[in-house]
Here is the input.
Amino acid sequence: MSFRIGLDLGSTAIKMVLADDYKIEWSKLVATAPGQEALALELVKDAMSARGLGEGDIENISATGYGKKLMSGAGHTVDEISANAGGLFRLSEGRCRTIINIGGQDLKVINLTDNGKVADFKMNDKCAAGTGRFFEQAARILDTPLETFGEMSKMADEPLELNSTCVVFAESEIVSLLAKGVPKERIIKGLHHSVARRVANLLGKHKTRGDGDVWLDGGPSQNAGLLEALEDELLMEVKVLPNPQYTVAFGAAISTM
Ligand code: ADP
Here is the structure.
């Protein structure tokens, strides 16, 4: 059996998948750092040795993401919007019509055609608000691991209304809320809602027409508190795959089909 390899060289993490035509068979990521090609090739080596594969078992190596041009070893490159669309459409078994992708440093909304192609997209990469970096910064100030934000937020009844979506202002707002003794749970829930409102703005009115499934992907989509806030703000179900950080890499892997 032959496999495909997809590499997503993102702003924050390099993701790698070993895939067949329909699903991810093996995946791993490392933090983005100088020497991206070497880091990515190390992931490929790990996958091949974990599965006992040789070069002849690999049909293609395809790269996407900000760092895709650095991958001289990739036979094919694809832009991240098309890779995201192709990957999520296939993994959702053709149901997805809108993707909300939250990455380390940007936020995207991609609308798909009924054939899983990109119909249109919007991107916010001008500031860190609403991205993984925003949450990482908040986690540092709150001295609370990001991985616990989901449960923490569930413990709060009412989200706190936060005024700042800008990372810099949110930072000083969080500091002053902590000084006033506001529980961290309420602040975290407030952060989730402020990001969810930002996503709702980017999504725009046209999407709430509810004519297709909306899926969330990217690293921060593993935060159950953010998902809950998004569903509250958008008044619709938002679906997430079991391994939502790898959909773009999977899309790259199958992009030569
Ligand atoms: P990029 O492609 O821009 O590198 P990713 O989709 O890989 O972005 O997402 C990276 C972001 O995901 C990081 O900012 C990180 O903080 C966030 N992230 C990773 N795991 C989790 C998690 N379990 N909960 C919340 N956020 C997470």
Residues 10-13, 103-105, 132-133, 135-136, 146-147, 218-220, 222-223, 245 surround adenosine-5'-diphosphate (CB under 6 Å). The chain has two domains: 3-82+247-256, 95-240. Residues 184-203 form the longest helix (20 residues). The mean pLDDT is 92.
